[in-house]
Amino acid sequence: MTATTERQTPVVPARLSRPINWLMEEVPARRLEVVRVITVLYCVVWIAIRTDHWRHLAELPESRWRPVGLAGWLGGRPSSATVTVIAVVAFGVGVYALWGRRWAVVGPLFAVGFLWLTTFAASWGQILHTEHLPALHLLVLAAAPSGRGSSSTTGWPLKVMTLVTIGTYVVAGLAKFRFGGGASWLDGERLLRLVAHDNLRKRLMGDPYSPIAAHLVGHPIVFRVGVWLTLIVELGAPLVLLGGRIRRAWMTMAWTFHLGVLVLMAVLFPYPLFGLAFASMLPAERLPTVTRAGRRPSTPRSI
Amino acid sequence: MSLVVVAVVAVLYPLGRSLTHDSFPLSNYPMFTHNPRAVAGFQRAVGVTADGDEVVLSPQLAGGTVEVIHAAQTIATALRHGRGDELCAEIAERVAESGSPAVEVLGVTDRFDIIDGLRAEDPRAIDRDVHAACEVR
Questions:
Q1: Angle formed by the axes of helices B2-12 and A156-178, nearest 10°
Q2: Which residues in chain A are contacts of B8 at CB distance < 8 A?
Protein backbone atom coordinates (compact mmCIF):
# COMPACT_ATOMS: atom_id res chain seq x y z
CA MET A 1 0.00 0.00 0.00
CA THR A 2 1.42 3.29 -0.99
CA ALA A 3 0.45 6.46 0.74
CA THR A 4 -0.28 9.21 -1.71
CA THR A 5 -0.63 12.86 -0.98
CA GLU A 6 -3.14 14.79 -2.99
CA ARG A 7 -2.84 18.48 -3.60
CA GLN A 8 -6.07 19.94 -2.41
CA THR A 9 -7.72 22.50 -4.65
CA PRO A 10 -9.27 25.25 -2.60
CA VAL A 11 -13.06 25.26 -2.85
CA VAL A 12 -13.09 29.05 -2.90
CA PRO A 13 -10.39 30.88 -4.88
CA ALA A 14 -8.02 32.78 -2.61
CA ARG A 15 -9.10 36.22 -3.79
CA LEU A 16 -12.78 35.50 -3.29
CA SER A 17 -12.21 34.03 0.16
CA ARG A 18 -10.62 37.28 1.28
CA PRO A 19 -13.90 38.95 2.27
CA ILE A 20 -14.74 35.99 4.52
CA ASN A 21 -11.27 35.99 6.04
CA TRP A 22 -11.52 39.73 6.47
CA LEU A 23 -14.75 39.41 8.44
CA MET A 24 -13.18 36.87 10.77
CA GLU A 25 -9.74 38.40 11.22
CA GLU A 26 -8.67 39.96 14.48
CA VAL A 27 -7.48 43.54 14.58
CA PRO A 28 -5.40 45.40 17.15
CA ALA A 29 -7.58 46.70 19.97
CA ARG A 30 -5.90 50.06 19.58
CA ARG A 31 -7.37 50.40 16.07
CA LEU A 32 -10.91 50.41 17.44
CA GLU A 33 -9.83 52.84 20.14
CA VAL A 34 -8.38 55.30 17.63
CA VAL A 35 -11.37 55.04 15.27
CA ARG A 36 -13.70 55.59 18.23
CA VAL A 37 -11.79 58.69 19.34
CA ILE A 38 -11.62 60.34 15.92
CA THR A 39 -15.26 59.54 15.08
CA VAL A 40 -16.50 60.92 18.39
CA LEU A 41 -14.22 63.95 18.02
CA TYR A 42 -15.63 64.66 14.56
CA CYS A 43 -19.19 64.46 15.88
CA VAL A 44 -18.40 66.66 18.89
CA VAL A 45 -16.92 69.32 16.59
CA TRP A 46 -19.92 68.93 14.26
CA ILE A 47 -22.30 69.61 17.16
CA ALA A 48 -20.28 72.70 18.13
CA ILE A 49 -20.38 74.04 14.56
CA ARG A 50 -24.03 73.22 13.80
CA THR A 51 -25.82 74.04 17.04
CA ASP A 52 -26.46 77.65 16.06
CA HIS A 53 -27.94 76.47 12.74
CA TRP A 54 -30.13 73.90 14.51
CA ARG A 55 -31.39 76.54 16.95
CA HIS A 56 -32.40 78.74 14.02
CA LEU A 57 -34.24 75.80 12.44
CA ALA A 58 -36.22 75.37 15.65
CA GLU A 59 -37.49 78.93 15.25
CA LEU A 60 -38.98 78.31 11.80
CA PRO A 61 -42.78 78.29 11.49
CA GLU A 62 -44.64 75.11 12.44
CA SER A 63 -45.73 74.62 8.81
CA ARG A 64 -42.13 73.85 7.82
CA TRP A 65 -41.79 70.92 10.26
CA ARG A 66 -41.62 67.62 8.33
CA PRO A 67 -40.42 65.04 10.87
CA VAL A 68 -38.51 62.02 9.56
CA GLY A 69 -37.19 58.87 11.25
CA LEU A 70 -36.82 59.19 15.01
CA ALA A 71 -38.44 62.65 14.98
CA GLY A 72 -41.55 61.20 13.35
CA TRP A 73 -41.84 58.50 16.02
CA LEU A 74 -41.32 60.90 18.90
CA GLY A 75 -43.81 63.39 17.48
CA GLY A 76 -43.97 67.04 18.43
CA ARG A 77 -41.68 69.73 17.28
CA PRO A 78 -38.97 70.63 19.79
CA SER A 79 -38.37 74.22 20.84
CA SER A 80 -35.14 76.12 20.36
CA ALA A 81 -34.48 75.76 24.11
CA THR A 82 -34.87 71.97 23.90
CA VAL A 83 -32.48 71.80 20.96
CA THR A 84 -29.97 73.95 22.82
CA VAL A 85 -30.13 71.82 25.96
CA ILE A 86 -29.78 68.56 24.04
CA ALA A 87 -26.90 69.95 21.97
CA VAL A 88 -25.06 71.16 25.09
CA VAL A 89 -25.61 67.86 26.90
CA ALA A 90 -24.59 65.84 23.83
CA PHE A 91 -21.49 67.99 23.43
CA GLY A 92 -20.52 67.41 27.08
CA VAL A 93 -21.20 63.67 26.85
CA GLY A 94 -19.19 63.54 23.62
CA VAL A 95 -16.20 65.26 25.19
CA TYR A 96 -16.38 62.80 28.10
CA ALA A 97 -16.75 59.91 25.63
CA LEU A 98 -13.43 60.83 24.04
CA TRP A 99 -11.70 59.33 27.08
CA GLY A 100 -13.57 56.06 26.67
CA ARG A 101 -14.54 55.79 30.34
CA ARG A 102 -17.90 54.11 31.06
CA TRP A 103 -18.29 53.65 27.30
CA ALA A 104 -21.13 51.15 27.73
CA VAL A 105 -23.26 54.04 29.04
CA VAL A 106 -21.62 57.11 27.52
CA GLY A 107 -21.25 55.64 24.01
CA PRO A 108 -24.95 54.88 23.44
CA LEU A 109 -25.95 58.15 25.13
CA PHE A 110 -23.78 60.19 22.78
CA ALA A 111 -24.85 58.20 19.71
CA VAL A 112 -28.53 58.71 20.51
CA GLY A 113 -27.97 62.41 21.25
CA PHE A 114 -26.18 62.91 17.94
CA LEU A 115 -28.88 60.90 16.14
CA TRP A 116 -31.61 63.03 17.71
CA LEU A 117 -29.92 66.31 16.74
CA THR A 118 -29.17 65.27 13.16
CA THR A 119 -32.63 63.76 12.70
CA PHE A 120 -34.12 67.01 13.94
CA ALA A 121 -31.99 68.90 11.38
CA ALA A 122 -33.27 66.63 8.60
CA SER A 123 -36.90 67.26 9.57
CA TRP A 124 -37.47 70.58 7.83
CA GLY A 125 -38.41 69.53 4.32
CA GLN A 126 -34.94 68.82 2.95
CA ILE A 127 -32.70 65.94 3.87
CA LEU A 128 -29.04 66.66 3.30
CA HIS A 129 -26.70 63.69 3.16
CA THR A 130 -23.66 64.81 5.12
CA GLU A 131 -24.77 63.46 8.50
CA HIS A 132 -26.07 59.97 7.69
CA LEU A 133 -22.78 58.09 7.79
CA PRO A 134 -21.32 59.59 10.98
CA ALA A 135 -24.66 58.99 12.73
CA LEU A 136 -24.64 55.34 11.64
CA HIS A 137 -20.99 54.87 12.54
CA LEU A 138 -21.61 56.27 16.00
CA LEU A 139 -24.47 53.81 16.52
CA VAL A 140 -22.18 50.91 15.59
CA LEU A 141 -19.46 52.19 17.90
CA ALA A 142 -22.01 52.60 20.69
CA ALA A 143 -22.60 48.85 20.60
CA ALA A 144 -18.88 48.11 20.60
CA PRO A 145 -16.50 47.46 23.47
CA SER A 146 -14.43 50.52 24.21
CA GLY A 147 -11.48 48.90 22.54
CA ARG A 148 -9.27 48.62 25.54
CA GLY A 149 -7.27 45.49 26.08
CA SER A 150 -6.52 42.78 23.62
CA SER A 151 -9.58 40.89 22.51
CA SER A 152 -10.60 39.01 19.44
CA THR A 153 -13.98 40.74 19.66
CA THR A 154 -12.59 44.18 18.92
CA GLY A 155 -12.59 43.63 15.17
CA TRP A 156 -16.30 43.40 14.47
CA PRO A 157 -17.32 47.03 15.05
CA LEU A 158 -14.77 48.15 12.48
CA LYS A 159 -15.98 45.53 10.01
CA VAL A 160 -19.58 46.60 10.53
CA MET A 161 -18.61 50.26 10.09
CA THR A 162 -16.88 49.34 6.83
CA LEU A 163 -19.91 47.38 5.61
CA VAL A 164 -22.18 50.30 6.48
CA THR A 165 -19.91 52.63 4.49
CA ILE A 166 -19.93 50.22 1.54
CA GLY A 167 -23.72 49.89 1.75
CA THR A 168 -24.31 53.63 1.65
CA TYR A 169 -22.14 54.03 -1.45
CA VAL A 170 -23.88 51.12 -3.20
CA VAL A 171 -27.34 52.52 -2.41
CA ALA A 172 -26.22 55.92 -3.73
CA GLY A 173 -24.90 54.28 -6.90
CA LEU A 174 -28.08 52.30 -7.49
CA ALA A 175 -30.10 55.50 -6.97
CA LYS A 176 -28.47 56.90 -10.13
CA PHE A 177 -30.16 54.09 -12.06
CA ARG A 178 -33.38 53.95 -10.05
CA PHE A 179 -34.10 57.70 -10.01
CA GLY A 180 -31.53 59.15 -12.39
CA GLY A 181 -32.84 57.93 -15.72
CA GLY A 182 -31.28 54.48 -15.82
CA ALA A 183 -28.67 53.93 -18.49
CA SER A 184 -29.19 57.44 -19.86
CA TRP A 185 -27.35 58.71 -16.78
CA LEU A 186 -24.20 57.22 -18.29
CA ASP A 187 -23.79 59.67 -21.17
CA GLY A 188 -22.76 62.47 -18.79
CA GLU A 189 -25.27 64.92 -20.23
CA ARG A 190 -27.51 64.83 -17.17
CA LEU A 191 -24.54 65.26 -14.82
CA LEU A 192 -23.37 68.26 -16.84
CA ARG A 193 -26.79 69.93 -16.58
CA LEU A 194 -26.99 69.00 -12.90
CA VAL A 195 -23.68 70.70 -12.17
CA ALA A 196 -24.69 73.78 -14.21
CA HIS A 197 -28.10 73.95 -12.52
CA ASP A 198 -26.68 73.55 -9.02
CA ASN A 199 -24.02 76.22 -9.51
CA LEU A 200 -26.39 78.68 -11.16
CA ARG A 201 -28.87 78.23 -8.31
CA LYS A 202 -26.14 78.95 -5.79
CA ARG A 203 -25.05 81.99 -7.74
CA LEU A 204 -28.62 83.33 -7.92
CA MET A 205 -29.06 82.85 -4.19
CA GLY A 206 -25.78 84.47 -3.22
CA ASP A 207 -24.15 81.26 -2.03
CA PRO A 208 -20.56 80.19 -2.82
CA TYR A 209 -20.42 78.29 -6.11
CA SER A 210 -17.71 76.63 -8.13
CA PRO A 211 -15.73 79.18 -10.12
CA ILE A 212 -14.45 76.54 -12.55
CA ALA A 213 -17.80 74.87 -13.30
CA ALA A 214 -18.66 77.59 -15.83
CA HIS A 215 -15.54 76.64 -17.82
CA LEU A 216 -15.92 72.90 -17.47
CA VAL A 217 -19.53 72.75 -18.72
CA GLY A 218 -18.02 73.52 -22.12
CA HIS A 219 -16.19 70.19 -22.01
CA PRO A 220 -18.72 67.32 -21.91
CA ILE A 221 -15.91 64.76 -21.81
CA VAL A 222 -15.22 65.81 -18.21
CA PHE A 223 -18.73 64.74 -17.23
CA ARG A 224 -18.63 61.51 -19.22
CA VAL A 225 -15.50 60.59 -17.24
CA GLY A 226 -17.12 61.89 -14.05
CA VAL A 227 -20.13 59.63 -14.48
CA TRP A 228 -17.97 56.54 -14.76
CA LEU A 229 -15.74 57.57 -11.87
CA THR A 230 -18.87 58.10 -9.77
CA LEU A 231 -20.24 54.68 -10.62
CA ILE A 232 -16.93 52.91 -10.06
CA VAL A 233 -16.69 54.53 -6.63
CA GLU A 234 -20.30 53.91 -5.63
CA LEU A 235 -21.10 50.52 -7.15
CA GLY A 236 -17.49 49.38 -6.79
CA ALA A 237 -17.44 49.98 -3.04
CA PRO A 238 -17.70 46.24 -2.23
CA LEU A 239 -14.24 45.86 -3.82
CA VAL A 240 -12.98 47.14 -0.47
CA LEU A 241 -13.57 43.65 0.85
CA LEU A 242 -10.81 42.33 -1.41
CA GLY A 243 -8.33 44.30 0.66
CA GLY A 244 -4.76 45.27 -0.19
CA ARG A 245 -4.07 47.49 -3.16
CA ILE A 246 -7.65 47.25 -4.41
CA ARG A 247 -8.96 48.68 -1.14
CA ARG A 248 -6.38 51.46 -1.19
CA ALA A 249 -7.20 52.24 -4.82
CA TRP A 250 -10.92 52.44 -4.01
CA MET A 251 -10.33 54.72 -1.02
CA THR A 252 -8.17 57.01 -3.17
CA MET A 253 -10.86 57.13 -5.85
CA ALA A 254 -13.63 57.74 -3.32
CA TRP A 255 -11.69 60.59 -1.73
CA THR A 256 -10.95 62.04 -5.18
CA PHE A 257 -14.65 61.75 -6.04
CA HIS A 258 -15.60 63.83 -2.99
CA LEU A 259 -12.88 66.32 -3.83
CA GLY A 260 -14.35 66.54 -7.34
CA VAL A 261 -17.81 67.20 -5.91
CA LEU A 262 -16.35 70.00 -3.80
CA VAL A 263 -14.46 71.56 -6.69
CA LEU A 264 -17.26 71.22 -9.27
CA MET A 265 -20.31 71.90 -7.11
CA ALA A 266 -19.03 73.56 -3.93
CA VAL A 267 -20.70 70.73 -2.01
CA LEU A 268 -18.67 69.69 1.02
CA PHE A 269 -18.89 66.18 2.44
CA PRO A 270 -16.46 66.66 5.34
CA TYR A 271 -16.73 63.15 6.81
CA PRO A 272 -15.20 61.39 3.77
CA LEU A 273 -13.02 64.34 2.78
CA PHE A 274 -11.29 64.31 6.16
CA GLY A 275 -10.86 60.57 5.69
CA LEU A 276 -13.09 59.62 8.62
CA ALA A 277 -15.54 57.63 6.48
CA PHE A 278 -12.66 55.32 5.61
CA ALA A 279 -10.94 55.20 9.02
CA SER A 280 -12.37 51.77 9.83
CA MET A 281 -10.61 50.38 6.73
CA LEU A 282 -7.21 51.79 7.63
CA PRO A 283 -4.49 50.80 10.12
CA ALA A 284 -5.67 53.65 12.33
CA GLU A 285 -3.65 52.33 15.26
CA ARG A 286 -0.63 54.02 13.68
CA LEU A 287 -2.16 57.42 14.37
CA PRO A 288 -0.94 59.05 17.56
CA THR A 289 -3.67 59.88 20.08
CA VAL A 290 -3.61 61.75 23.33
CA THR A 291 -6.26 59.79 25.18
CA ARG A 292 -5.35 57.80 28.25
CA ALA A 293 -6.30 54.53 26.61
CA GLY A 294 -4.74 55.35 23.29
CA ARG A 295 -1.40 56.65 24.59
CA ARG A 296 1.55 54.46 23.99
CA PRO A 297 3.93 54.01 26.90
CA SER A 298 6.91 56.29 26.58
CA THR A 299 9.30 53.68 27.90
CA PRO A 300 9.26 49.94 27.26
CA ARG A 301 7.79 47.92 30.06
CA SER A 302 7.23 44.27 30.62
CA ILE A 303 3.75 42.83 30.91
CA MET B 1 -22.35 37.70 12.68
CA SER B 2 -26.00 38.58 13.31
CA LEU B 3 -25.00 42.22 13.87
CA VAL B 4 -23.24 42.22 10.52
CA VAL B 5 -26.42 40.99 8.82
CA VAL B 6 -28.60 43.51 10.66
CA ALA B 7 -26.30 46.39 9.70
CA VAL B 8 -26.14 45.42 6.03
CA VAL B 9 -29.89 44.80 5.74
CA ALA B 10 -30.63 48.10 7.49
CA VAL B 11 -28.42 50.11 5.14
CA LEU B 12 -29.84 48.38 2.05
CA TYR B 13 -33.44 48.61 3.29
CA PRO B 14 -34.07 52.04 1.66
CA LEU B 15 -33.61 50.39 -1.75
CA GLY B 16 -37.28 49.51 -1.38
CA ARG B 17 -38.28 53.13 -0.99
CA SER B 18 -39.42 55.50 -3.71
CA LEU B 19 -37.64 58.70 -4.74
CA THR B 20 -39.86 60.85 -2.55
CA HIS B 21 -39.43 58.69 0.54
CA ASP B 22 -35.99 59.64 1.79
CA SER B 23 -35.30 59.46 5.53
CA PHE B 24 -32.66 59.69 8.24
CA PRO B 25 -30.33 57.98 9.13
CA LEU B 26 -31.28 55.33 6.54
CA SER B 27 -31.43 56.98 3.13
CA ASN B 28 -32.09 56.03 -0.47
CA TYR B 29 -29.50 58.73 -1.40
CA PRO B 30 -31.44 60.43 -4.20
CA MET B 31 -28.93 63.29 -4.47
CA PHE B 32 -27.53 64.10 -7.91
CA THR B 33 -30.30 62.16 -9.69
CA HIS B 34 -32.75 64.83 -10.81
CA ASN B 35 -32.79 65.85 -14.44
CA PRO B 36 -32.75 69.60 -14.95
CA ARG B 37 -33.81 70.82 -18.37
CA ALA B 38 -31.50 72.98 -20.47
CA VAL B 39 -33.89 75.86 -19.75
CA ALA B 40 -35.04 75.57 -16.16
CA GLY B 41 -37.14 77.57 -13.71
CA PHE B 42 -35.55 78.74 -10.48
CA GLN B 43 -37.96 79.51 -7.67
CA ARG B 44 -36.36 82.11 -5.47
CA ALA B 45 -36.97 85.16 -3.34
CA VAL B 46 -35.49 88.51 -4.33
CA GLY B 47 -35.44 91.82 -2.54
CA VAL B 48 -36.31 95.11 -4.25
CA THR B 49 -34.86 98.39 -2.98
CA ALA B 50 -36.61 101.77 -2.93
CA ASP B 51 -34.79 102.61 -6.20
CA GLY B 52 -36.19 99.50 -7.87
CA ASP B 53 -32.88 97.63 -7.86
CA GLU B 54 -32.89 93.95 -7.05
CA VAL B 55 -30.82 92.52 -4.22
CA VAL B 56 -29.98 88.87 -3.71
CA LEU B 57 -31.42 87.39 -0.53
CA SER B 58 -29.11 84.87 1.10
CA PRO B 59 -30.33 81.34 1.94
CA GLN B 60 -30.60 82.47 5.57
CA LEU B 61 -32.95 85.32 4.64
CA ALA B 62 -34.84 83.50 1.90
CA GLY B 63 -35.20 80.12 3.55
CA GLY B 64 -34.27 80.61 7.20
CA THR B 65 -31.34 78.23 6.82
CA VAL B 66 -27.68 78.42 5.90
CA GLU B 67 -28.12 75.49 3.51
CA VAL B 68 -28.83 76.76 -0.01
CA ILE B 69 -30.45 73.51 -1.18
CA HIS B 70 -32.77 73.57 1.81
CA ALA B 71 -33.66 77.22 1.19
CA ALA B 72 -34.34 76.58 -2.51
CA GLN B 73 -36.48 73.55 -1.68
CA THR B 74 -38.44 75.54 0.90
CA ILE B 75 -39.26 78.27 -1.62
CA ALA B 76 -40.11 75.80 -4.40
CA THR B 77 -42.40 73.77 -2.12
CA ALA B 78 -44.19 76.87 -0.81
CA LEU B 79 -44.79 78.29 -4.29
CA ARG B 80 -45.90 74.91 -5.64
CA HIS B 81 -48.45 74.50 -2.83
CA GLY B 82 -49.82 78.02 -3.09
CA ARG B 83 -48.20 79.20 0.15
CA GLY B 84 -46.19 81.93 -1.55
CA ASP B 85 -47.82 84.77 0.42
CA GLU B 86 -47.21 83.05 3.74
CA LEU B 87 -43.54 82.44 2.93
CA CYS B 88 -43.15 85.95 1.52
CA ALA B 89 -44.34 87.45 4.81
CA GLU B 90 -41.94 85.20 6.73
CA ILE B 91 -39.03 86.30 4.52
CA ALA B 92 -40.00 89.98 4.77
CA GLU B 93 -39.85 89.67 8.56
CA ARG B 94 -36.29 88.31 8.41
CA VAL B 95 -35.27 90.93 5.84
CA ALA B 96 -36.60 93.71 8.09
CA GLU B 97 -34.48 92.44 11.00
CA SER B 98 -31.38 92.03 8.84
CA GLY B 99 -30.84 95.66 7.89
CA SER B 100 -31.08 94.85 4.17
CA PRO B 101 -31.94 97.82 1.90
CA ALA B 102 -34.84 95.82 0.42
CA VAL B 103 -38.27 97.40 0.87
CA GLU B 104 -40.15 94.65 -0.92
CA VAL B 105 -39.79 90.87 -1.29
CA LEU B 106 -40.83 88.99 -4.39
CA GLY B 107 -41.37 85.24 -4.67
CA VAL B 108 -40.59 84.44 -8.29
CA THR B 109 -39.83 81.76 -10.83
CA ASP B 110 -37.03 82.94 -13.13
CA ARG B 111 -36.31 80.83 -16.20
CA PHE B 112 -32.71 80.58 -17.32
CA ASP B 113 -30.72 78.74 -19.92
CA ILE B 114 -28.62 77.01 -17.27
CA ILE B 115 -25.38 76.88 -19.26
CA ASP B 116 -25.61 80.45 -20.59
CA GLY B 117 -26.76 81.68 -17.17
CA LEU B 118 -23.80 80.11 -15.42
CA ARG B 119 -21.33 81.48 -17.94
CA ALA B 120 -22.79 84.99 -18.10
CA GLU B 121 -21.16 87.90 -16.34
CA ASP B 122 -24.59 89.06 -15.20
CA PRO B 123 -27.15 86.24 -15.63
CA ARG B 124 -30.45 87.49 -17.10
CA ALA B 125 -33.63 85.48 -16.85
CA ILE B 126 -35.43 84.58 -20.08
CA ASP B 127 -38.71 85.35 -18.34
CA ARG B 128 -40.18 85.68 -14.88
CA ASP B 129 -43.39 84.74 -13.07
CA VAL B 130 -44.12 86.67 -9.89
CA HIS B 131 -46.03 84.48 -7.42
CA ALA B 132 -45.98 86.67 -4.34
CA ALA B 133 -45.01 90.20 -3.34
CA CYS B 134 -44.90 91.72 0.10
CA GLU B 135 -43.67 94.84 1.79
CA VAL B 136 -40.75 94.92 4.23
CA ARG B 137 -41.90 96.83 7.31
A1: 20
A2: 163-164, 167
**Burial class of A111 by CB neighbour count within 10 A (0 to 12, 13 to 18, 19+):** buried
Lowest mean pLDDT among A60-64, A159-163, A274-278, B9-13: A60-64
Beta bridge partners of A192: none
pTM listed for this prediction:
0.88
Check the CA dihedral A226-A231-A234-A239 and report its sign: negative
Per-residue CA distances from A166 to A240, A243, B69 (Å)? 8, 13, 26
Report the gap between the CA of A260 and the closest CA in chain B (Å).
13
Give A95 to chain B, closest Cα distance, Å. 23
Min Cα–Cα distance to chain A from B107, Å: 13
Are A254 and A226 a contacting pair, CB within 8 Å?
Answer: no
Q: Which residue of B has its CA nearest to A55?
A: B65
Between CA A189 and CA A62 the distance in angstroms is: 39
* Chain B contacts in chain A segment 91-120 (CB below 8 A): 115, 118-119
The answer to whether A158 and A31 have CB atoms below 8 angstroms apart is: yes
Query: Chain A 262-281, CB below 8 Å of chain B: which residues?
Result: none
Q: Which chain A positions have a beta carbon within 8 Å of B12's beta carbon?
A: 167, 170-171
- When pLDDT is averaged across residues A84-105 and rounded to a whole number, the result is 96
Over the stretch B47-105, which tens digit does the pLDDT of each residue have? 999 999 999 999 999 999 999 999 999 999 999 999 999 999 999 999 999 999 999 99
Tell whether A29 lies on the interface with B, counting CB pairs under 8 A.
no
Task: Give this complex's ipTM.
Answer: 0.93
All residues at 6 or more sequence positions from A123 whose CB lies less than 8 Å from its CB, including other chains: A65, A66, A67, A68, A71, A72, B24
